[in-house]
Amino acid sequence: MRIEKVTEKVSLKRTIDQGTQEQQKVVEAIIEQVRSEGDEAIRFFTEKFDGAELASFKVTKDELEAAYAHIDDKVLAALREAMGNIRRFHERQKRQSWLTTEEDGTILGQKITALDSVGVYVPGGTAAYPSSILMNVIPAQVAEVRKIVMVSPPGKDGTLPAGVLVAANELGVEHIYKMGGAQAVAALAYGTESVPAVDKIVGPGNIYVALAKRAVYGHVDIDMIAGPSEIVVLADEEANPRYIAADLLSQAEHDALASAILVTPCERLAEAVATEVEKQLALLPRKEIAGASIRDYGAIYVTKDLEEAVAVVNELAPEHLEILTAEPMQLLGKIRHAGAIFLGPYSSEPVGDYFAGPNHVLPTNGTARFSSPLNVDDFTKKSSIISYSKTALMANAEKIAALARLEGLEAHARAVEVRLK
């Protein structure tokens, strides 16, 4: 793992793969075919890309019940406890509508309304992601979204992983469909004979899913276009190099494009972590993926002091930030840009990924400078409320008309003045 002394601003920002022109054309063609042919197109693409021939896409109650036979009781208990933690955390995010009344009779306020329907994309591929279901479905439920539709690509046998089915069933998700890729995004956006159209699509996916979400945005809302996963560890001489190496590798094994970075003012720690990363990497089942990530996007930055280390972290604006210093809480106020912040040696990043409660759907690629983790607000919309009394309008009509005429909008001015006669 390369070690560099910080001599100027460093950047974790990488160009998120926007897709080749060929990939974009493929996605556009898939979306158009789904819009025009509906289920027939979904069936065609599911066989082509997933190798599964399906007569029906919707997961049945029998499939959901059968999945429990493949889940260990201890795993199920842990899943249920994680659900409770995540729900309690998100319940605290819920906002209430409000009204305020002025002495002149004016009433102003804001009305919070849950979205009618949301589509949750759950990726497949090299792993199953029950945790993705919890993190996307629970805040939608807390927001009181009326309909949640889940899609996930099937295996060649036409089934979904048991963990995915159990997680969805535990949450009471009723609309689950075996489909993935750009075709599933198109189905959620525009609807088919089987799949109801939704108002917003959330959840991660591959480049084709990302391009499809970008293509349908505007017709429906989306959560974000997420890039590869990232972790930055901010540590001093008190930190344990074995812990740091393990945490860096926990993100590196996600994807060859994932980024794992240590920022520290301690050269001795930097060298110990570099050695420990190589030692632990050799023992990982996904060592080829993690090794490529560490080689191409991993780094250890050595700063002159802790203050400069904090500045580097804020410049990086990472998805995940671990603070492993003697007094991590003292640095919390100095951190301006990070998706999720993990304090102390026992707050390893996977604690947040699976169990603690905060959402693990986080801004990547430096976008933590201006965006937030997925939360209950993402599943609601706000309406402003304005109720002017006659007294209030009479007192302010002249000012309102003057502002309208400043913009050259005479009809606006007259719409107020007509009420003065």
TrEMBL record:
GO MF terms held by the record: histidinol dehydrogenase activity; NAD binding; zinc ion binding
Keyword Mitochondrion: no
Enzyme Commission identifier(s): 1.1.1.23
Substrates-to-products reaction catalysed: L-histidinol + 2 NAD(+) + H2O = L-histidine + 2 NADH + 3 H(+)
UniProt-listed Gene3D superfamilies: 1.20.5.1300, Nitrogenase molybdenum iron protein domain
UniProt-annotated binding residues for Zn(2+): Q251, H254, D353, H412
Top EC class for this record: oxidoreductase
GO terms under cellular component: cytosol
Cofactor: how and how many bound: Binds 1 zinc ion per subunit.
Listed pathway(s): Amino-acid biosynthesis; L-histidine biosynthesis; L-histidine from 5-phospho-alpha-D-ribose 1-diphosphate: step 9/9
UniProt keyword list: Amino-acid biosynthesis, Histidine biosynthesis, Metal-binding, NAD, Oxidoreductase, Zinc
PROSITE patterns, sorted: HISOL_DEHYDROGENASE (PS00611)
Binding site for substrate: S229, Q251, H254, H320, D353, E407, H412
Annotated family: Belongs to the histidinol dehydrogenase family.
Protein name according to UniProt: Histidinol dehydrogenase
Source organism per UniProt: Anaerobacillus isosaccharinicus
